[in-house]
Amino acid sequence: MKPRTLVIAEAGVNHNGSAEMALGLVDAAAAAGADVVKFQTFKSELVISTRAEKAEYQKATTGTGENQLEMVRKLELDHPTHHRLVERARSRGIDFLSTPFDDVSVEFLVATLGLKRIKIPSGEITNGPLLVNIASRNVPVILSTGMATMGEIETALGALAHGYLGDLAASRSPRGFRAAFRSGEGQAALQRNVVLLHCTTEYPAPDSDCNLRAMDSMRAAFGLPVGYSDHTNGIAIALAAVARGAAVIEKHFTLDSKLPGPDHRASLEPAQLTEMVQGIRSIDAALGDGIKRPQPSELKNLPIARKSLVASRAIKRGERFSPDNITPKRPGTGLSPMSYWDVLGMAAPRDYEADEILDLVTPAGDT
Predict the structure, then answer these.
(1) Do residues 261 and 339 share a domain?
(2) CA-CA distance, 194 to 226, in Å (whole number)?
(3) Co-location of 247 and 356 in the same domain
(4) d(CA 127, CA 118)
(5) What is the mean pLDDT of residues 263-267?
(6) Which residue, of 244, 262, 287, is where some domain finishes?
(7) How much is the pTM?
(8) How confident is the model at residue 314 (pLDDT cuts 50, 70, 90)?
(9) Domain tally for the chain?
(10) Which of 172, 64, 81, 93 is nearest to 128 (CA)?
């Protein structure tokens, strides 16, 4: 049976740098029924150069009057605010998670905040030093794979395996990563610690670019749990991913999609987030264990919906059963119509009235 889907409500930078708005996002995620609320932790100057341009969607949502560094600097959350968010999440019964983009932030999240799991975003999948650093701390990770090829995913997994193995690993290099990935110890470490997320890194992502079947390919190739980080408008694609077996769903949300900022327009509002979570829980329940058998709720309908062999007219004792005097009719409390051909030609053991169910034992032993 498919385990319950882990639902990550991605607050990201939709707090606009406001601690109070960030706390409100924790409350909204908890109220919607999400399992996890996720933020982003970074030191802008360690992540973005002064020459980095904005993405096209960022230009569309925030204008072109500043570069990417200037935009992102306003979206940092300081360390005291992180402590408040962790405490608020704890009080609301929801897990706190964050994505680090630099080594200083990794140290803070793991060593100071004590996070037991780290989310690695798609943009860092080729950042070997960061991947090794995170894995060397022996924390499980959720790795997004937007924009990546299967080969790049394998190399990233090799870097993580290398970090998990520590002194057991070969030298730090792509060759060493490949060796770590292929080793039995490396595979075991990945199995214990890594969940992959399929993703299309566009905001919003076109439905036609989602390629949900890639989840099947990733699961088959790497033998790891695979989920989906959804950037589409609405909730339909996220629900489809759950029905296709996603172990995790990550979805951006905001308090108000009309707020200024790069990600609000492509994010769910609280009511939509609630609807998505409820839909996911319904799908989780509906998927079942894959064994085809009558379900408890439908057993009472079996005798009502099915049929039995009955006399289609009055039949005298000794008369031979034929297509002229027997037929299938409801209710299904008697001899199955599958025995029709066994009954033909038998002598009636007694008189039957019209519509009376045949009480017979067939040559096959059916009654």
Answers:
(1) no
(2) 9
(3) no
(4) 15
(5) 93
(6) 287
(7) 0.90
(8) very high
(9) 2
(10) 172
Picking from 287, 315, 349, the residue at the C-terminal end of a domain is 287
- The whole domain housing 319 covers 294-367
Q: Are residues 262 and 362 in the same domain?
A: no
Instruction: Look at residue 363 and tell me whether its pLDDT is greater than 80.
Output: no
Residues with Cβ within 8 Å of 100's Cβ and at least 6 positions away in sequence, in order, are 41, 42, 106, 108, 109, 118, 130, 134
The answer as to whether 1 is a domain residue is no
Reduce the DSSP state of residue 220 to 3 states and report it. Answer: helix
Peptide bond into 100 cis (omega under 30): no
Distances (CA, A) of 216 to 171, 200, 210, 234, 293: 32, 15, 13, 23, 26
Number of other CB atoms surrounding residue 306 within 10 Å: 15
Please return the burial class of 208, using the count of CB atoms within 10 Å of its CB with bins 0-12, 13-18 and 19+: exposed
How many angstroms separate the CA atoms of 356 and 310, rounded?
5
Domain membership of residue 65 (yes or no) is yes
DSSP H helices, 74-167, are: 79-92, 103-107, 128-136, 150-165
> Which residue, chain included where needed, has tokens 């996890």?
36
Residue 289 has pLDDT above 80, yes or no: yes
Question: pLDDT band for position 305 (50/70/90)?
Answer: very high
> 158 and 186 in contact (C-beta within 8 Å)?
yes
Residue 280 lies in a domain: yes
* DSSP classification of residue 10: E
Residue type, 10: E
Give me the CATH number covering residue 147: 3.20.20.70
